[in-house]
Design brief:
Transcription Regulator spoIIAA; five-stranded mixed sheet; seven-stranded mixed sheet; 3 domains; 367 residues; single chain
């Protein structure tokens, strides 16, 4: 495949094979390993972008018509056929992230199309957010008033707080929304057996899994190295009317916590492990799989008999089958657990069959 003619970053370019046969159009990025992000058979202009945006937004209107969820993904890059563009909604605030310089140029060139589409969805503020290496997150307001540092939203009817100023990604990990609700249901299932239920949430970040489990009636322990994340989690507990009494928020390295808890003989009825990506590239996959096996073995050692273990991965380079291989009897150090469910990204994070990287999220339930 080659680019016809010369191009600068952000230009729409025509693609052809070696014989000169037209293959489609894409956005050129001179400084990226992905030299061209393909958009399809039509030149990229205002009309095409408006059509793609309307298709994406129509899907979200159908998904969240009950009004119970005010935080979700509006635009999911390749999955919505707008490569390099991601927009997350937090009530009336939308946060845009671009992947690569070409996507940023594209937004600047067609900004009015994006603004018109989002205003039509009730968005009052659009912020473009970028993380600088080793520095603070940078934001630019594209339209509307300056957003608050924190904002209250709902998820399946559950209120929670989002740290827009310092939170990860666009503010929250919206891809785990449905899995958080599933954890709440698992806690209810355990409670139905009678007696108290204890939940351990590893790499808890803003405590979403813990909150849903607490609302079900379980006692939770949230472990994360970042104290600021616990502050956000506690605000969410208060917003949902859940007293903090009986719920622990531990600011510690997860591995150190697991080692200490094992020595103390602590056991939990429901354990959730949702670490950051272990495989930033293909060559790091072997090391990542070994790290997952170590983590899963340590976490499973704290699971009480008859308990439930939920293991998640957000590493796009680690497929589901490979991830399942880190949850075998040898890795877990026990033979009483079976895989009962596996889940991927939620429907507001659509993917294309030709883009397996978009199906990066995996949650495996073992009982």
């Amino acid at each position: 495949m080659r680019v016809k003619g010369t191009a600068s970053t952000g230009d729409c370019v025509a693609l052809a094979d070696e014989a000169g046969t037209a293959l489609g159009f894409g956005i050129f990025d001179a400084g990226s390993p992905l030299a061209v992000r393909v958009w399809g058979d039509e030149p990229i202009d205002d009309t095409l972008l408006a059509t793609r945006l309307e298709s994406a937004l129509a899907l979200r209107r159908s998904l969240f018509s009950d009004g119970k969820t005010s935080a979700h993904r509006l635009l999911n890059g390749e999955g919505d056929r707008v490569p390099g563009l991601v927009v997350d909604r937090y009530a009336g605030v939308a946060v845009l992230r671009t992947d690569g310089d070409a996507a940023s140029v594209l937004v600047e060139r067609h900004e009015h199309v994006l603004v018109e589409a989002l205003r039509g969805e009730g968005i009052t503020t659009l912020v473009k957010r970028a993380a600088t290496k080793g520095g603070p997150k940078e934001s630019r307001v594209i339209f509307g008033p300056e957003p608050p540092a924190r904002i209250a939203v709902t998820e399946h009817g559950v209120p929670f707080e989002v740290d827009l100023a310092q939170g990860q990604k666009t503010g929250a990990f919206l891809d785990q929304r449905d899995n958080r609700a599933r954890v709440g249901e698992l806690a209810r299932h355990l409670l139905a057996r009678g007696g108290p239920v204890s939940v351990l949430n590893l790499f808890s970040y803003a405590g979403g899994f813990s909150l849903h489990a607490a609302l079900a009636g379980a006692k939770t322990t949230s472990v994360d190295v970042a104290p600021l994340a616990h502050k956000t989690a506690q605000e969410s507990f208060r917003a949902a009317g859940v007293p903090l009494t009986g719920h622990a928020f531990v600011a510690a390295d997860v591995y150190a916590f697991l080692e200490t808890a094992k020595k103390k003989g602590n056991r939990f009825d429901l354990v959730i492990s949702d670490p950051p990506s272990f495989a930033p590239s293909e060559k790091t996959v072997p090391r990542a799989l070994a790290a997952y096996r170590t983590l899963h073995g340590a976490a499973a050692s704290l699971l009480a008999p008859g308990g439930i273990f939920c293991a998640a991965s957000c590493s796009s380079h680690v497929g589901l089958e490979a991830f399942l291989g880190t949850l075998d009897d040898a890795a877990l150090g026990r033979r009483d657990l079976r895989v009962t469910d596996t889940y991927g990204p939620p429907p507001d994070h659509p993917t294309l069959s030709s883009f397996p990287e978009g199906r990066y999220l995996k949650l495996v339930v073992l009982r």
